[in-house]
Every structure is written in structure tokens, then in C-alpha cells.
# Entry
Amino acid sequence: MSGEGALVAMLAGQGGTTWLLYPALGVAAGALAGLLGIGGGIVVVPALVFAFHLAGFSDATLTHLAVGTSLATIVFTSLSAIAEHHRNGAVDWPLVRQLTPWLVAGAIAGAFVADALSGRALQVVFGAFALLMALQMATGWRRGAQSPLPGGGRLALASSSIGTASSVFGIGGGSLTVPWLSWHGVVMQRAVATSAACGFPIALAGALGFAGTGLDAAARPAFSAGYIYLPAFIGIVVTSVPVALVGARYAHRLPATTLKKLFAIVLAVVGTEFIVGWR
# Structure
């Protein structure tokens, strides 16, 4: 069968019309990336797990494919959001440059951690964390007075941990970076914009790591590059990139309290999904 014939058979076969979900996921991912600076992976990963399950993919690689594909889409989605946030002067570029080496190191490590572990325990841990962050963002509760961002070893530990967790869960890091920056007194709009910029190196390093660690994985579907499933990647990126630009514009028009409430709702929903189970 020719390459074109194989692609048509794949779209018409495995999972029926589940592939039509990918552009819709791109819209959701783009909106979240631009509006809340979270890359969209926090919604894309569980949705891809569900879609890949319907498509009949092997349980052995299904979750890894969802995570790797999500990271690959964030590479492009984040660029669109970054451009708009930069135009509004909201990105703290010196801070981004300070965090990037540790974020990248953590993201690469996260790809190897994910390759070695099953996903269920990590789902529960992340779900619990997401619910705690949702509570903090919704109530505005803080640990006493605001403290400035740490430096030295504490900054390296925090940012590398964010990179590792983001890579393991297939997210751009915003669900960790935004609350962390907000906790240390960074204005919400600036935290969202800076988080979006930090999402690019996390996603790029993580996606390359998942592509590499998945090359020898058994039971991968056709049209996958390591743990990146190309039809889903293309379908999501086509819509996520332009929508992220629109979302970033609205992020600078909404008050900080509204952004925090929206962010809390997203975290609460996803945290519950992770704990209860995606399927």
C-alpha cells in the first residue's frame, strides 16, 4: 500500500473519526496557552489518552504517546503566545534566561523518568498537586508575606523540578510556573507571559527526549516519531497556533482576579481527571 493509501486507511480505520478531535483540541490548547500561559498540555494529554484508547493503541505506549505529542505541539503553540505577550512588554526575559538552563535539564530528565515508569502513580500525584494549586489560586491564600524569588541553588532546584514534572506530564509548565511566580509576588499577567516564554524550552527539550526514548518502543502506531504521534501533532498545531495569538491578546484585557479564577477552574477539573483516571 502506498504512503497516501496507508494514511487514508489509518484515518478511516483505527478509532473511526477520533482523528477529528485533534483540531478541536488545538483550539482548546491555543486558548489556554495564550490566555493562561499553561501550554494547553494539561487538557491535551488526558484528551489524547482518551482518543488514542478509542483508536485502539496499545496500553503499553498510549500514555507516553499522549505526553510526547502534547510536548511537541506546545513547541509551536507557545511561540504564538510568546509573540503576543512580548508585543505587550509582559515577558520578564532576564528571568526567562535565568530559568531556562535548569528547565531544559529538568525536561530532559523527565523524558527518561517517564520512559521508565508507568503513568498511574504519577497521574495521582499530579492530580493532587493540581487541586492544591487550584485551591491556592481561587482563594488567594499565601504562606504569610510574599517572598521574593529565590536565587542560587533554590532557584535551580525549583526550576529544574518544574522542568522535570512538566516533561513527565506533557505540559508546558505553566500549571507549575504560574502559581510559583504568583506565590512570589509576580503580577498575574506578567506571570502568565513569562510562563508562556518558559514553556518553549521545556516543550522543546521534552519533545526531543520523548522522540528519542520512544524510538525503540514496541507497539508504537504507524506515523509516530518515537513517542510523538504525527497525525495528532499536525491536527492540533494547525488550530492551536492562531488561537493562542487571540488568547494572549485577551490575557492583557482581563483583570488578574479573573485570570486566577479561570486558572483555578482548569486546574481543579484536570486534577480531578488525573486522580479519578482518564478512562
